Amino acid sequence: MTSRIDHRLNDLDGLLSQTSYRVIQEGVTNALRHARASMTDVAATINDDQIQIEISDDGVGLPQDLTFGRGLTGMHERVRALDGQLELVHGRGQTIVRCRLPLDHPVAR
User: Fold this and answer.
1) What is the pLDDT of residues 3-12, one digit of tens each?
2) What stretches in the chain show pLDDT beneath 50?
3) Number of folded domains in the chain?
4) Is 39 part of any domain?
5) Percentage of the chain surpassing pLDDT 70?
6) Angle at 16 between CA 66 and CA 74, to 5 degrees
7) Which helix (H) or strand (E) holds 74?
8) Is 109 within a domain?
9) Please, are residues 88 and 40 in contact by the beta-carbon 8 Å criterion?
10) Those residues with Cβ within 8 angstroms of residue 90's Cβ, 6 or more apart along the chain or in another chain
């Protein structure tokens, strides 16, 4: 597993920090539990007015009959509560969870 976590995420507090943590936690848990992946990558950055999180793996992909279990449902609800976006993508031998969470104000670089 590789990870690139922006050090400025340490400066977040409250619900935004907790939601970022939970999205990463659930994304990695799903990759480990279901994907049978040989490689997982986590990236979390702050770009201007938003947090961008991406968890990707090279596992078996998403099932055709994917139903959101408690983990994905909880992740989606947390992100939506903060007016964020959550996206699941599969292609080119990868499954990717992408999350964007708006910041109330830009974080210093």
Assistant:
1) 999 999 999 9
2) none
3) 1
4) yes
5) 88
6) 25
7) helix 70-81
8) no
9) no
10) 61, 62, 96
